[in-house]
Amino acid sequence: MSVIIGKLGTGKTLLLTYLSQTIKLLTDEIYSNYPLEDDKVKILTFKNLDFTDRTKLVPPDDNVILFDESYLYIDGTSSHDEKKVHSGKIPWIVLARHFGNRALFTAQREGMIWNNIRQLASGIIIPISLKKPVAKKDLFF
């Protein structure tokens, strides 16, 4: 499980899309919460990870799940309330690696990601801003 953090326009979604194209060479099961024009990438929502909701299909083992703008699903600033709402998803987050599942989450700030996800993440990636640097008058190199 990894987290990609970066400001608006720094290429988080682009990085997820690029990774989906390289990862599909390694696995047949890729899921995303945003549409990709690729038959190999299936759409899924955060509700699909709820073990207590038998009406939703949990993705099979050995897959990759891409969650762009994950704070839309889990508010990292109100974790107590989120534990009640998403209690069925906590087992998936905790046990994902045991089933060969890999997940990539994005957010604009670290605090926007749910604490359970941040603590279990094997890596936090912060992309370099793709915006052109602006020269200031007072700075000398």
Tags for this model:
alpha/beta; Rossmann fold; six-stranded parallel sheet; P-loop_NTPase; Spiroplasmavirus-related protein
Structure in words:
- The structure is a single chain.
- With 141 residues, this protein is α/β, with parallel strands linked by helices.
- The chain has one domain: Rossmann fold.
- The chain has 4 helices and 6 strands; from the N terminus they run βαβββααβαβ.
- It has helices spanning 12-23, 79-85, 90-95, 115-120; strands at 2-5, 30-32, 41-43, 64-67, 102-107, 123-125.
- The protein has a 6-stranded parallel β-sheet.
- The longest helix is centred in the N-terminal third of the chain and has 12 residues, at 12-23.
- The protein is globular, with a radius of gyration of 17 Å.
CATH superfamily: P-loop containing nucleotide triphosphate hydrolases
What would the CATH topology be?
A: Rossmann fold
Query: What is the average of the pLDDT values?
Result: 75
Structural class: alpha/beta
Task: Give the topology.
Elements: E1 2-5, H1 12-23, E2 30-32, E3 41-43, E4 64-67, H2 79-85, H3 90-95, E5 102-107, H4 115-120, E6 123-125
Parallel strand pairs: 1-5, 1-6, 2-3, 2-4, 4-5
Organism: Spiroplasma kunkelii CR2-3x
Protein name: Spiroplasmavirus-related protein
InterPro entries: P-loop_NTPase (IPR027417)
